[in-house]
Design goal:
- There is one protein chain.
- The protein is α/β, with parallel strands linked by helices.
- It has two domains: 231 residues, 3-Layer(aba) Sandwich (Aspartate Aminotransferase, domain 2); 124 residues, Aspartate Aminotransferase, domain 1, CATH 3.90.1150.
- It has a seven-stranded mixed beta sheet with strand order 1-9-8-5-4-2-3, with helices on both faces.
- Bound molecules: pyridoxal-5'-phosphate (PLP).
- The site of pyridoxal-5'-phosphate has 15 residues, from helix 3 and helix 4.
């Protein structure tokens, strides 16, 4: 049996007519730039995320960039070294400096205690903001982070690229501070190309972001700031609006797949395999189902599964403080041991909503086989 890591064609087949019709509507209207579908989608997402404003932009990366620019952040921005590159790339491109803090071993999210330590050190007077990342679809410890931010007068920007719909103590991600979302095709709400969005409850900030995404013009052709060209495409907004109708159902299926894996793999001892942990007050929307393979066997398991037709992925093989492009920041191996260890052990399994029952059973069967555990899977 072949089990792809992600098969978006299946999802498309299930909503083909609605999608094609939505695209056709935009083609007929010819309003490709900030057409009415963008505003309508923004309104719906603001509502879904319990935020006052939602502003569509061209990607999750640009959502981070514009949030930083609109907040006037230069100096240091604390974030996690265990995230997709864009989090730190956007900080640098906004003219600020990424300052890393290690992660929690169980959630892979930034460790608030490590952030506190950083702020306690004299050399870090230049810190202006924190970007927690809700990695794999699980919210970072927002209460702890918001408290630190309040005490030190810091801006908080949630990188919610992987976490649309996730909740922290009943609050939607993106509603607690400035939220940055990505509609990259593999996300839980993914477009057919790039797309992103920013949520905020701050009227003035929303206005600044809207101006920045249109070259800084307000009104058109009058520029008080130098902005960017980064708008959510109308065709993407039309596609995303169709998909938003299915998001809750898809999230439920992802969580169901995750529950299945966690139950079926629970007989493998913890010193061989660690399963994803859901921290208190979180829901986890499982953009990724990520296991930890101990004793240096992660690559062996990956290879074994590949040989059985099962595709898996490693998010992320090299933490950001060790990326060659960030060598100028002066970090070295050993600086963030928890992130470094995670990068050697993590393995993400197929968890998308269209995964067939037989496929997830096959994945489990093969993992049990690798660890030589006998169990009936169903
Ligand atoms: C954590 C995180 N931040 C930022 C991004 C950037 O989003 P995009 O690819 O839409 O630019 C992504 C995803 O790709 C991501 O996973």
């Amino acid at each position: 049996m072949k089990v792809p890591f992600l098969d978006l064609k299946r999802q498309y087949e299930s909503i083909k007519e609605e999608i094609n019709e939505a695209i056709q509507t935009v083609l007929e209207s010819q309003q490709f730039i900030l057409g009415p579908q963008v505003e309508e989608f923004e309104r719906r997402i603001a509502n879904y995320c319990n935020a006052k404003h939602a502003i569509g932009v061209a990607s999750g990366t640009d959502a981070l960039l514009l949030s930083l620019k609109a907040s006037g952040i230069s100096g240091g921005v604390v974030t996690t070294p265990f995230t997709f590159f864009a989090t730190a790339g956007a900080i640098h491109n906004a003219g600020a400096t990424p300052i890393f803090a290690d992660i929690e071993p169980d959630t892979y999210n930034i460790d608030a205690e490590e952030v506190k330590k950083l702020l306690g050190s004299k050399s870090n007077k230049m810190i202006r903001a924190i970007i927690p990342v809700h990695l794999f679809g699980q919210a970072a410890d927002m209460d702890a982070i918001m408290k630190i931010a309040e005490e030190h007068d810091l801006v908080v920007i949630e990188d919610a690229a992987q976490a649309i719909g996730e909740e922290y103590n009943g609050k939607k991600v993106g509603s607690m501070s400035i939220g940055c979302f990505s509609f990259f095709p593999s996300k839980n709400l993914g477009g057919y190309g790039d797309g992103g969005l920013i949520t905020t409850n701050d009227d003035e900030l929303a206005d600044k972001i809207r101006t920045l995404r249109m070259h800084g013009a307000k009104p058109k052709y009058y520029h008080h700031v130098i902005g960017y060209n980064t708008r959510l495409d109308t065709i993407q907004a039309a596609i995303l609006a169709v998909k938003l109708n299915h998001l809750e159902e898809w999230t439920t299926k992802r969580r169901d797949n995750a529950r299945f894996y966690s139950k079926a793999l629970s007989d493998i001892t913890e010193d061989e395999l660690e399963l994803p942990q859901i921290a208190e007050g979180r829901k986890h929307i499982f953009n990724q189902y990520t296991i930890r393979v101990k004793n240096g066997r992660r690559d062996n398991l990956k290879e074994f599964l590949e040989g059985q037709g099962i595709s898996t992925a490693i998010y992320y093989p090299l933490p950001l403080h060790l990326q060659p492009c960030f060598s100028f920041l002066g970090y070295k191996r050993g600086d963030f041991p928890v992130a470094e260890e995670a990068s050697k052990e993590v393995l993400s399994l197929p968890v998308y909503p269209d995964l067939e029952r037989e496929e997830r059973e096959y994945v489990v069967k093969k993992i049990l086989e690798f660890f030589e555990v006998e169990k009936d899977v169903q």
